Amino acid sequence: MPVISKYAVMGNPVSHSLSPRIHQMFAQQCDIALEYSAIEVAEDAFLSAVTQFRDEGGKGLNITVPFKQQAWQLADHRSSRAELAGAVNTLKFDEEESIYGDNTDGIGMLRDITGNLAKQVGGAKILVIGAGGAVRGVLGPLLEMQPSLLHIANRTSAKARDLAVVFGKFGPCTASGLDELGGVSYDIVINGTAASLQGEVPDLPVKIFNHETLAYDMMYSKEPTPFMRWASENGVTHCSDGLGMLVEQAAESFYIWHGIKPDTKPVLQALR
Ligand code: ATR
Q1: At 192, which helix (H) or strand (E)?
Q2: Are 203 and 251 found together in one domain?
Q3: Domain of 14, in residue numbers
Q4: Does the Cβ of 219 fall within 6 Å of ligand 1?
Q5: How many CA atoms lie within 13 A of 234 on its CB side?
Q6: Which residue lies with its CA nearest to atom 5 of ligand 1?
Q7: Least confident span in 61-70, 91-100, 110-119, 169-178
Q8: Using CA atoms, how far apart are residues 59 and 53, in angstroms rounded to an integer?
Q9: Contact between 98 and 76 (Cβ < 8 Å)
Q10: How far is CA 10 from the centre of its chain?
Q11: pTM recorded for the entire structure
């Protein structure tokens, strides 16, 4: 009997997570036997849940809201992209008892935008809306592609400015409040706020769009997100949710655990 390795995603809520399906599809594709479950963890029980999972033979975890910062603290060593993101979405339990933490969200979004959606990031003018944990995770990989400008705009402008100070050393990074936008249009507009979760759209001027803009929401849902609907109502023809990002970040986690890069296209197709 082959030994079946155990993996899981931990979060709260997590019952609707697509990660178990995605990882099973990757595993089938690569002929790997694994178990991948979704574990809902009480807000104050993250550390004990990880310890229990590991004691029961778990090999790795994906971590989602609200535990990414706690996972960052828990990791004994981290990739440089996780270090910069201040958050970890992938834990790997090494043989020698140590815990490795990585963050695959940024590279996942980048692969979705440049690969699946065929939009160039190098040289592009990018607007990122929001300044929370989700945004912090994607700024490093975006700047690595050398956009001509990356502007961060947030409802609370001070938080955007703080991020621009931290990330300004990696490329041309500026910041403002939402109410200061308007004079410039962007090649890519990324919604990294939690507004879609509340069925809302950040208060934005339509002048941020031109007829070539990709409007990208890091959230995903069965229906187009409120941000995507608002963008299309205002003439944007190229809109995407973050389902591709979810699949691509999962593929990178799969690679960290198993050393094989799965083909994401059929998996994304199956989920759509
Ligand atoms: P996450 O870890 O998902 O990024 P977070 O750190 O709480 O969550 O950050 C949420 C982000 O969404 C913030 O940038 C927040 O703006 P503020 O910093 O001004 O609070 C943004 N956000 C949430 N709801 C919003 C709304 N209705 N309109 C605009 N921005 C919103």
Answers
A1: none
A2: no
A3: 5-103+245-271
A4: no
A5: 17
A6: 132
A7: 91-100
A8: 9
A9: yes
A10: 15
A11: 0.95
